[in-house]
């Protein structure tokens, strides 16, 4: 933020735009959720939080920040979708998905912490 201010970028305007865009996407997600499930709950999206964080970490984004890309996050999303669909096709109850995602998430964090050179290579 300090570097952007020194470069002459109006950070306050950009933050306002980012928050407005974020609220727009949250509104669209809420409307789509209500249209799909025909009900509204204040804590309706809490189950999606694990999937979102897990997709980012499984995709290789560092917990320390500064490392990662949108494409790696999309790969993490696809990994979670494959796990979820595979468990569903095998007939497992849905709570096994959270157990498996948690195990994969712990593995991804361990790899990030113990072997950072595997993830943070240049190029």
TrEMBL record:
Q: Which UniProt keywords apply?
A: Cell membrane, Membrane, Transmembrane, Transmembrane helix
Please state the protein's primary subcellular location: membrane
Compartments reported by the entry: Cell membrane
**Carries keyword Glycoprotein?**
no
Transmembrane intervals = 16-35, 98-115
User: What InterPro entries does this protein's entry cite?
Assistant: ABC_transp_permease
| GO cellular component terms attached to this protein's record | plasma membrane
**GO MF annotations in UniProt:** transmembrane transporter activity
Q: What membrane topology is given?
A: Multi-pass membrane protein
Q: Which PANTHER family match?
A: ABC TRANSPORTER PERMEASE PROTEIN YPHD-RELATED-RELATED
Name of the molecule in the record: ABC transporter permease
């Amino acid at each position: 933020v300090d570097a952007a201010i020194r470069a002459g970028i109006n950070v306050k305007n950009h933050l306002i735009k980012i928050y407005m865009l974020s609220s727009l996407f949250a509104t669209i997600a809420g409307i789509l959720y209500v249209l799909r499930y025909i009900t509204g709950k204040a804590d309706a999206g809490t189950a999606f939080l694990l999937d979102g964080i897990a997709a980012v970490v499984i995709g290789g984004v560092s917990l320390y920040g500064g490392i990662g890309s949108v494409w790696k996050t999309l790969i993490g999303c696809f990994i979670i979708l494959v796990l979820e669909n595979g468990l569903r096709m095998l007939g497992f109850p849905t709570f096994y998905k959270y157990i498996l995602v948690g195990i994969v998430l712990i593995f991804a964090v361990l790899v990030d912490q113990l072997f950072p050179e595997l993830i943070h290579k240049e190029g």
